[in-house]
Amino acid sequence: MWVRREQIIRKIIRLQQNELYQLVQKSLNLLFPFVLIGSISQLIQITMLNRNSLLPTIFGFSSWLSRYRFIEIIFDHLTSLTLGIVAALAAFSMAHYTAKRYQRDEKLASITGLIAYLILTVRYTNNGELAFGQDMLGMGGLFLGFLVGYLVGLSFKHLANSQQDKSSSGVTWNRALDSLRAIIIVLVVAICFSILLNWLAISVLPDQVILRLQSLKANQTSLLFSVAIVILAGIMTFFGLTSMPILAHFGRNGVAMTANLNYALIHHTIWGVPYPFSLGTLYESFGAIGGTGSTLSLVIAIFLFSNQRDQQLIGRWSLLPVLFNFNSAILVGVPVLGNGLYIIPFLLVPLVNVGIAASAIALHLMPAVVYQVPLGTPSLLQALIGTNGNWVTLLVMALNVGIGVWLYRPFVKLSNRLNTQGDGLDATER
């Protein structure tokens, strides 16, 4: 048994030493500061500068905000230019590291990757104008950004000249000429694909698939449907294919939530609502504590069990956004995205949390979440507010977080060991 475990660990180390895997990890590390800044800016926007959010409503400074709208504009621009274009930055960084891996001009490759991705996001509007598709530029477009960047890097590998033997004299002009063929071909191909996508009038993002699921009204009311969406959300987020706001929007505006709210208003009680096991009652309040994957438990597990200094720092910087369900920074910083080590707890913890909450509702220990929760509400208070102050929900939330920490714990410890053994293996094999 011990021998088999050691073999698994070594295989994981080998996987982490895979060329493509390392390129993605380097790119994610480069993106982390911008994702963190964007997450904090978005947090300030929603919790402090939105007139309908929790804090302005409680402390009554909504009227004050209307007189200082320029502050909101500043943070809106900051979010848009960091978190809002993270997929384009992913194409930039991936093209950079891929070209560098093959001794090609990484600076020109990264700029080409950025431009190529922006070309792909261009959409024709109904009034005949051109605009960037915002849904392709954010976290939901990360996978496509990495794919475009990697393909651009490979194009430079085959179409551009090597830079390893270039002298420093006249290097800028020579590098431009050496990479000109690759740049032209990449941009022409990007333009052709952009025209094709616009002609077909389709989006390549799975976010659209999530939104189209709202048409399945009959299935939105079942526990099985909710569990399926939880699994789908975890998988798609893990591979950088969707974002938490899309999923939250889906849950809040489902048929079941509307029916539950109408029942509560008519009968003046939230007990006995017709659809207690829907996505809206279970996922956002209990299954996604700290964002998709219940990453609040991961952050706590890192604080308690990680001996890696960089992981501890990432956890500290990411804690505040995670408390409000903005987990982009922790997903990119650890990283969790695309990291095979964390896929099991990332999918398992939300399912366990949903199961615990559904059991508590079925046993009549607590009512289902019925009421709309104000924007900017901390994740740990969402169920409490959504049930109009039922204190049992806090106990269930604490239980979910604790079990989540326990489930993430062995994987955080394994990460410590893999980091140590991986360094040792690298040193040995050099």
Tell me what the structure shows.
- This protein has 430 residues and is mainly α.
- The chain is 69% helix and 1% strand.
- Strands 1-2 form a two-stranded antiparallel ribbon.
- The chain is globular.
- The protein starts with a helix and ends with a helix.
- Mean pLDDT is 81; it is low at 424-430.
- It comes from Pediococcus pentosaceus.
- It is found in: Cell membrane.
- This is Permease IIC component.
Annotate the secondary structure layout.
Elements: H1 2-16, H2 19-47, H3 54-59, H4 62-67, H5 69-80, H6 86-101, H7 106-121, E1 122-124, E2 130-132, H8 142-159, H9 171-200, H10 207-212, H11 223-238, H12 244-252, H13 255-267, H14 279-287, H15 295-305, H16 309-323, H17 328-333, H18 343-362, H19 382-386, H20 392-429
Antiparallel strand pairs: 1-2
Helix pairs in contact: 2-5, 2-6, 2-16, 6-7, 6-8, 7-8, 7-9, 8-9, 11-14, 11-18, 12-14, 14-18, 15-16, 15-20, 18-20
Subcellular location: Cell membrane
Domain PTS EIIC type-3: 4-411
GO molecular function, one term: protein-N(PI)-phosphohistidine-sugar phosphotransferase activity
